[in-house]
Design goal:
Elements (H helix, E strand, L loop, with lengths): L18 H6 L3 E5 L2 E6 L3 H10 L2 E4 L4 E6 L2 H8 L6 E6 L2 E6 L4 H12 L4 E4 L4 E7 L3 H8 L12 E6 L2 E7 L4 E6 L3 H14 L3 E2 L2 H6 L4
Parallel strand pairs: 3-12
Antiparallel strand pairs: 1-2, 3-8, 4-6, 4-7, 5-6, 8-11, 9-10, 10-11
Helix pairs in contact: 3-4
């Protein structure tokens, strides 16, 4: 008789590096495309109010991430990404495509085709942890975490920086400022950002409030 445990038949569940910190905050969890996500930490209307008029942070690690290397402009011209994805151009030879968690596979296949033999497209979803900063006070939060003048990054722009002394990528979207760092730094970065946000009367928000407010 085999000593291996019986297979349950359920799908594998991925968790973000900050999962235990979310649990400590009393998060209610939900499943989304193989991830266990913090859906809410309390009343969703209070979380939505923080997004609209104050300061909110959210763990967006499950967002799909595809790393493009090569002649990025040519690759993107062939790929023709629409409004359902966000493209963070980091240099003439490097870009990050951000998708919904469920859309990684089809966009990766399209990106690999667009890359051809001279470029490269890699799924780096689990390589990076992500945090979204939302609300009118998000810029105040950033000012306490980095010495870089991030106000120079226009809508749709992206840049590399050090956030709380951690190398990171900042992406300025329509609804949020998103920062991505290596997964091994994800727990530390979330804890540092959350503590700083708390001093500014900010709060953690879950995916229910995020999607209700139009983030994608």
């Amino acid at each position: 008789m085999s000593g291996l445990p019986a297979r349950s038949g359920t799908e594998p569940v991925r968790r973000t590096p900050a999962h235990r910190l979310h649990a400590g905050l009393g998060a209610r969890f939900d499943r989304l495309d193989g991830w266990e996500i913090p859906a809410a930490y309390g009343p969703v209307d209070l979380e939505r109010a923080a997004i609209r008029g104050g300061l909110a942070i959210a763990d967006v690690t499950p967002r799909g991430k595809i790393d493009l290397r090569g002649a990025v402009d040519e690759m993107l011209a062939r790929l023709a990404p629409g409004p359902e994805v966000r493209v963070a151009r980091l240099s003439a030879r490097s870009a990050l495509i951000l998708t919904r968690p469920s859309d990684v596979a089809p966009w990766l296949a399209a990106a690999e085709q667009a890359a051809g033999v001279s470029g490269m497209a890699t799924d780096v979803t689990c390589v990076y942890a992500g945090i979204a900063l939302l609300g009118p006070n998000a810029w105040d939060l950033l000012a306490r975490l980095t010495s870089m003048d991030v106000s120079t990054v226009g809508p749709g722009g992206a840049t590399g920086l050090r956030l709380a002394k951690v190398p990171a990528i900042l992406v300025r979207g329509e609804y949020a400022i998103e920062v991505y760092a290596a997964s091994e730094s994800g727990r530390y970065l979330w804890q540092t950002v959350a503590e700083t946000a708390g001093r500014l009367q900010g709060r953690a928000v879950g995916w229910d409030a995020l999607t209700a407010e139009g983030w994608r």
